[in-house]
Amino acid sequence: MPLFTTFTEPVRVKYISTILSKATIFNVLIAILTLVIPYLICYRMQGFWLILETFREQPQVLFKHQALAILEVKNADGTQSNLIWTTFPGHRSMVDSKVFPFIRSREPDVNYDAVKDYLDIDITFPLQKDESVFAAHIVLLFEYKLKTFTNLEMESMVYAGYVAGSNGSSYEFTGDLSLVQKQPLWSRHYDNRFNNDVVPRHSLNSKDYSLGKIIKEYAARNVSTTLKNKYELWTTSGSSYTKEFSIIGKIMYTEDSYQCWAGIWQMLKWAWIQYFCVFIVVYSILRAFQRTVYKARLFETVLVVPWEKRHVQMNF
């Protein structure tokens, strides 16, 4: 009758030595190398410690109905002047302007997820008979929030402008509202460092409403927004003068990427996965080397096998 293996069991062989012996020192050295070598390999390969994390999220954006618009016009006698319209109380008290534009804006939620998807805005300025527009500038203020991976709340701004060589009847622009970071955000932390006025609305200092000053100070912030994927269209007038001028804009609140400092648990999780993969390989190699050394009897030890039951007394 043929025979076949029904069960196998490994034989465990012991190599016994004293605590203060070469074999013990060798074992301690192997244990240290088993722990240290995987760390050194992972560390030298770069990316062992996860410092930054990148996330994607559609921000919660709301137009605050705060704006500043400036039209640069030429009069019939060749002189130039500015038509200024603003919602800032401090600026309105200083500007003697009789500009009363017609404004339409809407922020629809296309996919009904309780997050606005874009802003449509149309501002139409009536003009005098002898006025022609050759440049337009507009500043719009928004409430900007990130909620999923970080808790950021801030007031953000969008600037759009165009300087043309001929008089126009409208200026149109479209683009994506995009986050600009000069430093990472804090993961899972509430951040309201930039939730303050981009433009001091009640200031009585005319320099605070200078476009150059507003743009420079806003660009210096560590976290801000800008228009990306931007397209502009300047429509020229068919005659020397037009009755009205329109600024038409569409700003899309698209899903955006941003970076955060990695939390301690994310760092440990990322490092442990890499360390464990290398540890298995290093452990297997050093274990095989350790087995070879003991089988070669390079150290003075007592060999104990299961079928030899005896009392071992160390005399060396």
From TrEMBL:
Asked whether the UniProt record includes Transmembrane helix among its keywords, one would answer yes
What family is reported?
A: Belongs to the TMEM231 family.
Name where it's found.
Cell projection, Cilium membrane
Q: What is its main location?
A: membrane
Q: What is this protein called?
A: Transmembrane protein 231
UniProt signal peptide: none
Organism field: Orchesella cincta
Per the entry, what this protein does is: Transmembrane component of the tectonic-like complex, a complex localized at the transition zone of primary cilia and acting as a barrier that prevents diffusion of transmembrane proteins between the cilia and plasma membranes. Required for ciliogenesis and sonic hedgehog/SHH signaling.
Q: Which PANTHER family match?
A: CHST5 PROTEIN, TRANSMEMBRANE PROTEIN 231
Which Pfam families does UniProt cross-reference here? Answer: TM231
GO process annotations (BP): cilium assembly; regulation of protein localization
Q: How does it sit in the membrane?
A: Multi-pass membrane protein
Q: Which UniProt keywords apply?
A: Cell membrane, Cell projection, Cilium, Glycoprotein, Membrane, Transmembrane, Transmembrane helix
Can you cite an annotated GO cellular component?
A: ciliary transition zone
Q: Which residues cross the membrane?
A: 20-41, 270-289
